Amino acid sequence: MDIQTAVRTVLGKYATFNGRASRSEYWWWFFALMLFNLFLRVVDVTVLVPLLGLETFDDRAGGPLGMLAALALLLPNLAVAVRRLRDTDRSGWWILIVLIPIIGYLIFLYWVLQRSHEGENRFGERSE
To answer: Considering the domain boundaries, does residue 53 fall inside one?
Structure first.
């Protein structure tokens, strides 16, 4: 899977938590999201903040475009993470493990880095 296919797939399944997401789909989406956030950050800092005089935004919080994008992409991010967990034969509810500081993130990272469960699992056929 390439980056374009991953982005089209994730956005096409905007709030679909059923099914599975391959490791490449998840990580290509993650990479595209980082590039998009970097682009928005540049636009926020160089265009919007000086133009609109929005000096009240904290540097660490990001600008208005970044915040709008984060809100708009919240559901697809959750959905692809849940589908990725399901691809490793774990319940999507395990996404809540990230609520445990540091250790939860490390466990989640370990799980999404694992290979896909071969063949069919309890969540359906393997996605490509």
So the answer is: yes
Domain assignment present for 125: no
- Give a yes or no: residue 35 inside a domain: yes
Residues 78 and 68: their CA atoms lie apart, in Å, by 16
Residue 15 CA to its chain's centroid (Å): 12
Number of domains the chain is built from: 1
pTM higher than the cut 0.70: yes
Q: How far apart are CA 32 and CA 35, in angstroms?
A: 5
**What's the pLDDT at 64?**
80
- Amino acid identity for residue 40 in this structure: L
The residue among 108, 103, 104, 106 whose CA lies nearest residue 92 is: 108
